[in-house]
Specification:
Layout: H1 2-10, E1 15-16, H2 18-25, H3 29-32, E2 36-42, E3 45-47, E4 57-61, E5 68-70, E6 81-82, E7 89-93, H4 95-106, E8 122-128, E9 133-138, H5 143-156, E10 162-165, H6 173-182, E11 185-188, E12 193-195, E13 201-203, H7 208-221, H8 223-242, H9 253-264, H10 277-286, H11 291-298, H12 302-316, H13 320-323, H14 327-352
Parallel strand pairs: 9-10, 10-11
Antiparallel strand pairs: 1-7, 2-7, 3-4, 4-5, 5-6, 8-9, 12-13
Helix pairs in contact: 5-6, 5-8, 7-8, 10-11, 11-12
């Protein structure tokens, strides 16, 4: 089951077509699909279903019998195929239902009212009653994001807490240090909880032995001592965390327009390669996929995506990870440019009768 939880690390956004979920989770998809819910959001493309895939997202086009996915990469070996009903909709992990089931499975106390909003990449699961410590569940995409999430939780609620993640893949020395400074404990669902077919969650081992050493350490220090130490560090932490805000200020308009112009220059020309730069930019920067997820969507290796990200950094003058924070700004500019072009074409039609 460890491989199943590892796939959540590679698909931390928790959003995609059913075909995307199937591609990421493979044989384990049957264990995951009962936790998915349709969002009602439709997309304009669908992953290739050929084995091996051609490497492009197939364009969804209207047909009399319903939408069909058509290959646009010029491969010539892919047949169009129908995409019906729910398979044309984005599906996401039903986190609210999953958290409630996880709370019951771990024997935590649920929130008395609406669960407290934690924001960021983590959600409140329940309370570990022996020391009244909140337990959170986080889906992150890398070591730096995990450290930021730990710091954010420490600032939001000083005091001991437990942070659950799918695996321990991103628990770097910096993350462990941040947990220690917060008086917190990080636990992986791998080896602790088994996801069964049909939606069941089952403990693979008792939870209390995993928590006992941490609880004893907190008790030995005294919750008051932990709180005093945390408050002593809050000012320095806020300064450091303020340099890496989760919601940075928008780019100045000239900088945003310049970057947008550079992005438009990424339009592929000539022979279409696997994972063209513009496609990688959209998947990584705008949709927020991890490198592994982009590679799966593009039908190529992760090494090629890392290479493309390096090319993007050189062309745009910024690391692609930084540009994720400005995705909504890029989308707004793109929309306004499209509307301007539409109005210009409309005026030309009225003038010249085209």
């Amino acid at each position: 089951m460890s491989t199943l939880w590892a796939q959540f690390d590679a698909f931390a956004t928790g959003r995609g077509l059913l075909a995307d979920w199937e591609a990421v989770f493979g044989d384990d998809f049957e264990r995951v699909k009962c936790w998915l819910k349709p969002t009602g959001e439709r997309v304009e493309s669908h992953p290739c279903v050929r084995k091996p895939p051609c490497g492009c997202r197939h364009e969804l086009r209207a047909a009399r019998a319903g939408p069909v996915a058509v290959c646009v990469c010029g491969d010539g070996r892919c047949d169009a195929f129908p995409v019906e009903g729910a398979r044309a909709l984005i599906h996401e992990l039903d986190r609210s239902r999953f958290r409630r089931r996880l709370c019951d499975t771990l024997g935590l106390a649920p929130a008395g009212g609406p669960p407290p909003a934690s924001g960021g990449r983590s959600d409140f699961v329940g309370t570990y009653l022996p020391i009244q410590a909140p337990v959170y569940l986080a889906f992150v995409e890398g070591e730096a994001e995990l450290v930021c999430e730990i710091e954010r939780l420490r600032l939001q609620r000083p005091g001991p807490f437990v942070l659950l993640t799918p695996t321990r893949r991103f628990y770097s020395a910096e993350a462990e240090s941040a947990l220690g400074a917060a008086g917190a404990l990080g636990l992986a669902l791998t080896g602790l909880v088994e996801l069964e077919r049909g939606g069941g969650l089952r403990l693979s081992q008792p939870l209390e032995p995993l928590l006992a050493p941490w609880r004893a350490r907190v008790a030995a220090e005294g919750v008051g001592a932990v709180l005093r130490r945390i408050h002593h560090e809050l000012a320095a932490t806020r300064r450091e965390f303020g340099q890496r805000p989760s919601c940075p200020e928008p780019l100045p308009e000239p900088d945003a327009l310049r970057l947008f112009a550079l992005v438009r220059e990424l339009e592929p020309g000539g022979a279409v390669r696997k994972a063209p730069l513009l496609q990688v930019f959209r998947l990584y920067c705008l949709e927020g996929l991890a490198a592994e997820g982009v590679a799966r969507r593009c039908g190529c290796s992760k090494a090629l995506i890392i290479q493309r990200l390096g090319q993007l950094r050189r062309k745009l003058g910024r690391h692609p990870a930084e540009l994720r924070a400005f995705a909504s700004q890029f989308e707004a500019i793109e929309k306004s440019v499209g509307e301007f072009r539409g109005r210009r074409l409309s005026r030309q039609s009225m003038l010249y009768g085209d």
